[in-house]
Amino acid sequence: MSRVVVLGAGIAGHTAASYLQKYLAKEHSVIVISPTPTYQWIPSNIWVGVGRMTPEEIKFDLRPLYKKWGIEFIQAKAQTFYPEGNNEIQAGFVEVEYTSKEKLGEKLRVPYDYLINATGPKLNFEATEGLQPGNGNIASVCTYSHATEAWHLFKEKLDKMKKGEKQTFVIGTGHPTATCQGAAFEYILNVDFEIKRRGLQDKAEVIWITNEYELGDFGMGGAFIQKGGFISNTKLFAESYFVERNINWIKRAGVKKIDHNKIYYETLDGEYLEQHYDFAMLIPGFAGHGFKAFDKEGADITTKLFAPNGLMKVDADYSQKPFENWSINDWPETYQNPSYQNIFAPGIAFAPPHSISKPMTSKNGTPIFASAPRTGMPSGVMGKVTAENIVEWIKTGNPVIKHRASMGKMGAACIVSAGFGMSKGTAATMTVSPVVPDWEKFPEWGRDIKTTMGEPGLAGHWLKWLMHYMFLYKAKGKPFWWLIPE
Amino acid sequence: MENRLIISKYSDQYYPPTPTNFTLFWRKFIPFQLIRFFILNYKIIKIVVKGHS
Known about the structure:
Mean pLDDT of chain B: 84
Helix content of chain B: 55-70%
Largest sheet of chain A: 8 strands, mixed
Shape of chain B: flat
Strand content of chain A: 15-25%
Oligomer: heterodimer
Radius of gyration of chain B: 18 Å
Number of strands of chain A: 25
Structural class of chain B: mainly alpha
């Protein structure tokens, strides 16, 4: 009998747990540990943040599902890893702290044979002074509760505009090396859509602020797409979207500090500037959760398991190389920790070998560039292949790692919502293949130009809407859920 | 396009392409978008299938 422990119940963790219970015989146990018992479909937070969906529509309680599936659920957060065990427990274990009301603060040691660390990122709001959501006019859409607060704040501003007050909306990245530009891009387009739907555009100024070198970088170095008889960069695509909507932008900006109505930022040129705002939604930097790790003798081995940013080391090439020498081979394929092969880290929990976008530094030495994104689809695929590899290992008794999912080989689809509505809504359907450009295989464009695309239109909204229901159906384990791809 | 503001010349906002009313029409024209919906679905599924090994 094997014990598989999954830390985290987000897209990667829940996907892994779903396939583990499906493929493993009942004699094996699957344990999921997560600080909240809720699964949320994060891509739809955007719609919660503009009042088009309620939090209840994008989340559900995992406990009844896990009970039905025979998965043990522990409401707790991981703290310390003991991959070799210690003098009391022979097997590897993880020390967790309960977050449920009944046992709040109590500690528990959970032994495992296989460990999946799918704890995602720590939303590092503290890294930018004043960025904390709920702090005055600052909002976030990183979680459903943040998105709910964002909607309440946005509604306040809409009411002010209805009374004739002008308002400035600033949306984008809130840290010089933040990622997830795509989510902020969707939010600004939806905010703009909702303002215009109410006929309040004369009272609003909407501004995009970003650490991208050029718009459309999205943390993946931008992409080339073939459309209208041209092959053009996503820079044009993003800029055209903004110009069409009269949205202004500030690029190459590293946000350093925010007070009640001003955003202070540094540019790549080394200038220190400020921007007034009445409503700001800025994506924070991501970091690891600050986990600690100890060996059997109690020596600190945190650096063996985790990179300096706190994310877990996996089968990536972490050697320091100049940008020109980066390759898709630097990117992990199995998400297996090199020191402890029974530990895996799919999703945002793994430490990327480097960014995808070119690192840039301001004249004052501040790094200002987009970190590597890992969106829902790659996270789901990573969760699935991790589960498949563990299942095969358990079934054969050999550490067979057959299933691979490198971001340098897999493609990703991203539907960028730009307004909600079955006849008036719009979204840009974007696909990139692969996620990390492969300049050796595709020397001209970095990606397969036939499958990399960006297309705005109503159909994109239908797709995004369909995906919302389809992926929640899958996550809820409804009949034939496993037929729906990640 | 009709709502486009006067943009200060030589600013970043001065240069990008702006969709014409014809382009905007096709982006919202339901019969055309229905066809695009199925085509886009097909393209996404191709990407998804390639991503699993």
